[in-house]
Amino acid sequence: MAKNLIIVDSCVLIKAFRKDVIAINDLKGIIDITAYSVITQLELLIGANTPQKKEAVNTIFESYYGIPLNPSISVKAIEIMRKYVNGQRIVSVPDCLIAATSITTSYPLLTYNKKDFDFIEGIIFYK
Fold first, then answer.
1. Which of 5, 60, 74, 116 could form a disulfide with 35 if both were Cys (CB 3.0 to 4.6 A apart)?
2. What is the span of the domain harbouring residue 100?
């Protein structure tokens, strides 16, 4: 796997699919170092409800570095869930896995939803 990758959150890719110029330019700026958590791929595939959308999702992921779940990422995701989920805060399973992927690999995360992650110790944001 390449070094110095940038992990892209689902929200960035969704905006790019919807022709958002900022998202498209952000992705163009990291074209050779774009990575994603496998959970991001699953999130996009679940929303791809036509054959054309599924093909578009598959095509984009073919050009990026996929980071599969592994024991270290799983352990970190469980730590995040245990530490941060309480009566006042809910952290989704996908966000826990994406954050754990970023922290475990030491790759920064490009997201437009920083509020979903900014309280998690050890996460580094791109931009």
1. 5
2. 6-116
Which pair of structure tokens corresponds to residue 120?
A: 């998690």
How many domains does the chain contain in total? 1
CATH number at residue 21: 3.40.50.1010
Residue 21's CB is within 10 A of a number of other CB atoms, namely 9
pLDDT digits (tens, 9 = 90+) for 34-72: 999 999 999 999 988 888 888 988 888 898 999 999 999
Within 8 A by CB and 6+ apart from 14, the residues are: 44, 47
State the Cα–Cα distance between residues 55 and 52, nearest whole angstrom.
5
- Three-state secondary structure along the chain? CCCCCEEECHHHHHHHHCCCHHHHHHHHHCHHHEEEEHHHHHHHHHHCCCHHHHHHHHHHHHCCEEECCCHHHHHHHHHHHHHHCCCCCCCCHHHHHHHHHHHHHCCCEECCCHHHCCCCCCCCECC
- Whether 30 contacts 2, CB under 8 Å: no
